[in-house]
């Protein structure tokens, strides 16, 4: 079960790399004087699909960790663990927000280019 969860997180990591690569490709293509609209559309679809997969899997991992953490018996202070978990959740939420902002920015740039 733990190895399975780690493999899923590795897949999420690869998906995040794909998101960053798509975003870079979109920005690079938009920086050209004459850009390829079909390439931009394909990259945008890939970007959005990857973002959705990352968000979905991270949410599932957070739900799992929340369930597991609350079901454990008390064995001394858990402050440090709870703090680490909360910080991880905060970082995941921040990444989600920033990736969403990047997606909206790319969409806005595409709309401006099509006008």
Automatic annotation (TrEMBL):
Domain of life: Eukaryota
Location relative to the cell: Nucleus
Keywords: Activator, Nucleus, Transcription, Transcription regulation
Molecular function GO terms recorded: transcription coregulator activity
Gene3D superfamilies associated with the record: 1.10.287.3490
Coiled coil: none
InterPro entries: Mediator_Med11 (IPR019404)
Key word Ribosomal protein present: no
Gene Ontology CC, one term: mediator complex
Keyword DNA repair tagged: no
Biological process, per Gene Ontology: regulation of transcription by RNA polymerase II
Function noted in UniProt: Component of the Mediator complex, a coactivator involved in the regulated transcription of nearly all RNA polymerase II-dependent genes. Mediator functions as a bridge to convey information from gene-specific regulatory proteins to the basal RNA polymerase II transcription machinery. Mediator is recruited to promoters by direct interactions with regulatory proteins and serves as a scaffold for the assembly of a functional pre-initiation complex with RNA polymerase II and the general transcription factors.
Subunit structure: Component of the Mediator complex.
Family indicated by similarity: Belongs to the Mediator complex subunit 11 family.
The protein's name in its UniProt record: Mediator of RNA polymerase II transcription subunit 11
Native organism: Crenichthys baileyi (White River springfish)
